[in-house]
Amino acid sequence: MIYSFKGHIPVIHESSFVHPLAAVTGNVIIGENCYIGPGAAIRGDWGEIVLEDGVNVQENCTVHMFPGKSIVLRESAHIGHGAIIHGANIGRNVLVGMNTVIMDDAKIGDESIIGAMAFVKAKTIIPPRSLVVGNPAKVIKEVSDDMIAWKTAGTRLYQQLPADCHESLREVEPLREIPENRPKQEDFYKTLEEYRKGNKE
């Protein structure tokens, strides 16, 4: 669902995928290989919202701001299910955990990881490579090389997902019985603990 607002029409690169149950409104620019999940709302009615290449905004997220503000989600930013970004700028290759809230004029430094359900207060400045948790959110340590490598690998899956959706996502009637030849799904991603264990072996 793509809407113009006061003459602003969203600009969305053809390689990106916006789910039909998402809403993108007004002054929004979406770069290459971005994924916008069902239920997400990206509302550029009061200011500009830019999603650089490879950003994903997952199911039921909200991206908005106060009037007169403009915000950027930098390359490979990863916005987890149910998160709210309100007037905040998100750095390159950042992971924003599920149900996190990041408030106005906050700035999240590159390659930071914001834990699930964190609350980042307005005007908070998070340095690059910070691991942030809590309500109110606090930096607890620096993001390690293996943590950011794991995050980057997960984001690559979301950067492939738009092409997969363009190729294979279709609205269908459900089956009424489980077929004998039901395809199996790939096991192609590990938890952080599994990733660390694999790297040590």
TrEMBL record:
<dbReference type="InterPro" id="IPR001451">
    <property type="entry name" value="Hexapep"/>
</dbReference>
<dbReference type="InterPro" id="IPR011004">
    <property type="entry name" value="Trimer_LpxA-like_sf"/>
</dbReference>
<protein>
    <submittedName>
        <fullName>Phenylacetic acid degradation protein PaaY</fullName>
    </submittedName>
</protein>
<dbReference type="Pfam" id="PF00132">
    <property type="entry name" value="Hexapep"/>
</dbReference>
<dbReference type="InterPro" id="IPR050484">
    <property type="entry name" value="Transf_Hexapept/Carb_Anhydrase"/>
</dbReference>
